[in-house]
Each structure stands twice: as C-alpha cells, then as structure tokens.
Recover the amino acids of this structure.
C-alpha cells in the first residue's frame, strides 16, 4: 500500500508529487512561511509575558512563603499558635483508629482507692483485701442477689472489714471488667447477722424493681414513708412489721436522698448504692444498717 510520502509515488522526481502540501483541514495551508498548528504549540504565545522563557499556565506560581502584610492587617493573623495551647483531645471508638485522651482513660480506670476508703479503713483498724481471700467467697453470693441486677462479670473488690458501733461490717466495691482493668460501679456495705432474717427488699418507691417474685408489700402505716419507700418481704411477720414501722429507720431514710437499697441474703443485711466506696459513704451505710439490723433484732 502506498502512502503520500512513499518514494515510489511521491519521490523527488519533478512533477510527480514534489509540490504536495498537507490538506488544510489537517492544519496545513498553502503558505510555506506560516507554521502549522503543531509547530505553533512549540512556540510562546503572542501575548505571553514569558516569551523567551519556559511557558507555564497563569496562576501556576505559588505565593511567597512569607507574604508581606497588607496595610492595616493584624500581624497576629499569621502568628503561630502559642506554645501553651492545650493539646487536642482525640476520641473515638475501638474501630475508629483514634486514641483516647490518656488523662481521661486514667480517670475511668479502676485501680483501687488507695488514699480514700482504704486509707480510712486502715486508720480505723479495719483490714483490707482484694476480694480473693477465702472469707470473701460469700461476697459473690451477695453480689449475685443484689437488687441492682448485676451481670456474671461483676465481682467484689477492695474489700474492707471492721467494726462500726455495734456492728461488724464488710464494705466493698462491685466492679466489672473493661479492657484490661476494672471499673467500680456499686458500693456495698453488709452486716453479718445471727439468727434467721426473712428475705426482704427495702428500696425507694421511685426505683424500678426486678426479681421480686414471691415478695409481698409490707405497709408501714405512715403515708409519708410509704410514699417514698417500699418494703417487700417473702412473708408477713413480726420482724418485717417492726422494720417497716421503726421510727429510727423511718427518720433516717426520710432524711436521706433515697439513693440506697437494702436486702438480705447469705446471712447478711446489706446496703447498696450506685457509687464507689468512700469514707463518707461507709459511715452513711453504717448508720443506716445499725438502724435496720436493730429493728430486725428487736422483734425477736
């Protein structure tokens, strides 16, 4: 197949193609003095101010690294942030690729209350254990029977034992695992009792209650008390009647913030609150338990 530049058809012989020109629709023209479009692309544009140098699109150059301030502009606009600026806290879920603020992580990591409740306990001659001692085994039964509906992962920790007034008490935190650490969710204070104590629940009337099957309400006869507190027991009897109507118990509970619940299980009468233990809470529970246990004992 021949082409227009094939020497067989358009050689240098005169009159046989030596006057051939590229068609105009392909960018050619009849004048040899004017370059075609392909040649023009290699030359600077007529209105290009960079003629004689390398051509580049308008606006290609970046602004100077240190631009001059405009007249009347505030120099602080370009000033770097102060060195004392607080670092940005980074938050996110476990799959977000973002890290938690380490200070916040430490604040919510349970490591035992070494300078609060435990320090108070040691000052008052109480003993301290981590919840794994043989005598602590009964505490897991208390946790399982608590009116707060604990999970199987909740367990006792930071166990404190000692005497408060007429009672021998055990105070501990109910913790649950989170990652490689534990978080205290509830504070329990319990008093071991001799003799038989009926199964009962004494809780603020505003609290939602579960696991109360087989329990019957025991009214106190005081409308003000019954409007704020509810006593449920496995059976009606002298002990629970005495507990419901005891003036000391009623006075202490009506003077509280309605934040504690009481129940009996595993040979103990116990109080629980949504909190971690602290000295003031141990003393608060000790006063309430002394009144509750005293009311139950007075009915013998």
């Amino acid at each position: 197949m021949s082409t227009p530049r094939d020497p067989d058809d358009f050689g240098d012989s005169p009159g046989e193609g030596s006057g051939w020109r590229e068609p105009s629709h392909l960018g050619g023209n009849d004048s040899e003095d004017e370059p075609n479009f392909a040649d023009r692309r290699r030359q600077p544009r007529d209105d290009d101010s960079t003629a004689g140098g390398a051509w580049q699109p308008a606006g290609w150059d970046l602004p100077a690294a240190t631009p001059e301030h405009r007249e009347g502009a505030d120099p602080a606009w370009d000033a770097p942030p102060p060195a004392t600026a607080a670092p940005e806290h980074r938050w996110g879920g476990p799959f977000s690729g973002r890290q938690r603020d380490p200070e916040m992580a430490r604040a919510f990591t349970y490591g035992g209350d070494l300078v609060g409740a435990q320090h108070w306990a040691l000052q008052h001659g109480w003993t301290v254990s981590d919840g794994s001692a043989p005598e602590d085994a009964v505490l897991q039964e208390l946790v399982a029977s608590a009116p707060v509906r604990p999970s199987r992962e909740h367990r006792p920790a930071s166990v404190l034992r000692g005497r408060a007034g007429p009672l021998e008490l055990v105070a501990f935190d109910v913790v649950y695992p989170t990652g490689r650490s534990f978080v205290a969710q509830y504070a329990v204070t319990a008093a071991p009792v001799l003799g038989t104590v009926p199964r009962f629940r004494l809780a603020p009337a505003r609290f939602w209650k579960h696991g109360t099957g087989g329990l019957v309400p025991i009214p106190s006869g005081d409308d003000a008390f019954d409007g704020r507190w509810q006593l449920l027991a496995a059976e009606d009897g002298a002990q629970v009647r005495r507990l419901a109507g005891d003036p000391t118990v009623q006075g202490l509970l009506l003077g509280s913030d309605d934040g504690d619940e009481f129940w009996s299980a595993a040979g103990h009468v116990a109080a629980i609150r949504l909190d971690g233990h602290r000295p003031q809470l141990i003393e608060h529970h000790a006063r309430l338990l002394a009144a509750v246990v005293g009311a139950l004992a007075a009915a013998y």
Confidence is low (pLDDT under 50) at residues 81-98. Residues 1-43 form one domain. The longest helix spans residues 279-298.
